[in-house]
Design a protein that fits this description.
This protein is an alpha+beta fold. It folds into three domains: about 15-125, Butyryl-Coa Dehydrogenase, subunit A, domain 1 (Orthogonal Bundle); about 130-230, Beta Barrel (Butyryl-CoA Dehydrogenase, subunit A, domain 2); about 240-385, Butyryl-CoA Dehydrogenase, subunit A, domain 3 (Up-down Bundle), CATH 1.20.140.10. The chain is built from eleven helices and nine strands. The chain starts with 18 loop residues before the first helix and ends in a 6-residue tail after the last helix. This is Glutaryl-CoA dehydrogenase.
Length: about 400
């Protein structure tokens, strides 16, 4: 298998990967191009997710963290980021599914689960035998999840009784398990639970009428006296600090995904500019179009450079919350600019799905907001800069 560098990776950052990582990245790219791209617009428009692709996609070892229980080979954070980028440059909804399954769900169990929980659940999630969702955000608690959780857990003997609600939970309409974060009534600390979705009192309802990431199956979840055994409580999740350890792993992945969305829009605009003729010649020959495309490529290149370094810091053990927050905030803002320029370069055709750029343009809005809004990430960075906490 020969790895082909992307033209949108203008400085050739993929050369930083090992040969094995480049081969794995090519496998992911081939799957996305041959299996996902032909149906991405259709499923986006229908608001459905192509569940029939899940096991085949997971078999590509797409972005798997290097857990000893499941990793097919030792891989770097830069590889995992570039895998998210590769997925998103074809379809951000597919990348979001993987981000939940292999990042948030497997990440939670990998970071906060006991060895017994890791042994039981990680292989099942990695193979697609079990699908998962991650329940942190609530109807009245998004940015203030650290102290605003209203979902509660109360221990009764060897069981926990969970009550509350969650919102915007990806994969939740079809997941077999959902990681639920709830505040322990006894000590006020946030704890995590592996909740089978078949448990009585658990209900998931699809959120309709979205304009972004339409193929992602987001749901409202209600939990009414949901009982789970102590053995399904994540044994090393004892406060929101442990929740934050998981988010630190995944926030930079969203930055990488935003680069992929920008790449997809940029590549679509380049293709269109070479084919579309106006005034007797391809619009690619017009200076203003070339300026748009050069600006897009500059944003993409700067964002890759930032994400490469923040991923290297994760592997080195030096990455802090403010590092991933800066990457997420900066890269999603540059993505928003890039998809707008790409759409603009296509004129009216930029708003129809036929040319794909419209899908990237719409999907960018969701990435801009989830895993911490732009404003919240700015305050995390601002606190690191000034030493002053400006959170309300």
């Amino acid at each position: 298998m020969t790895f082909e560098p992307l033209t949108s990776d203008f400085y050739g950052f993929s050369s930083l990967l090992s040969e094995q990582e480049r081969e794995a990245l090519q496998t992911i790219r081939d799957f996305m191009e041959h299996e996902v791209r032909p149906i991405a617009n259709e499923y986006w428009e229908k608001g459905e997710f192509p569940l029939h692709l899940v096991k085949g996609f997971l078999a590509t070892d797409a972005a798997r963290f290097a857990w000893p229980e499941t990793a097919p080979f030792e891989n770097s954070a830069v590889f995992r980021g570039m895998a998210a980028m590769e997925m998103s440059r074809v379809d951000a909804s597919t990348a979001t599914f993987i981000g939940v399954q292999e990042g948030l769900v497997m990440g939670t169990i990998g970071v906060t689960g006991s060895q017994e929980q890791r042994d039981e659940w990680l292989p099942k999630l990695a193979s697609g035998e079990v699908t998962g969702a991650f329940g942190l955000t609530e109807p009245l608690s998004g940015s203030d999840s650290a102290r605003g959780l209203r979902t509660t857990a109360r221990r009764e003997g060897d069981e926990w009784v969970i009550n509350g609600a969650k919102r915007w939970i990806g994969n939740a309409t079809f997941s077999d398990i959902t990681i639920i974060w709830a505040k322990d009534e006894a000590d006020g600390q946030v704890k995590g639970f592996i909740v089978p979705t078949s448990t009585p009192g658990y209900t998931a309802t699809k959120i309709e009428r979205k304009i972004s990431l339409r193929a992602v199956q987001n749901a409202d979840i209600t939990l009414e006296n949901v009982r789970v055994p102590e053995l399904l409580r994540l044994q090393n999740a004892n406060s929101f600090r442990d929740t934050a350890r998981v988010l630190r792993l995944t926030r930079a992945q969203v930055a990488w995904s935003s680069i992929g969305v920008a790449m997809g829009a940029y590549e679509g605009a380049v293709k269109y500019a070479k084919e579309r003729e106006q005034f007797g010649k391809p619009i690619a020959s017009h200076q203003l179009i070339q300026d748009h495309l050069a600006r897009c490529l500059g944003n993409i290149t700067a964002s890759i450079a930032m994400c490469v370094r923040v991923s290297q810091m994760l592997d080195e053990g030096t990455q802090r919350d403010e590092h991933s927050a800066l990457a997420k905030g900066f890269c999603t803002a540059r993505m928003r600019e890039t998809v707008a320029w790409a759409r603009e370069a296509m004129g009216g055709n930029g708003i129809v799905l036929d040319y794909e750029v419209a899908r990237f343009f719409a999907d960018a809005e969701a990435l801009y907001s989830y895993e911490g809004t732009h404003e919240m990430n700015a305050l995390i960075v601002g606190r690191a800069i000034t030493g002053v906490n400006a959170f309300v």
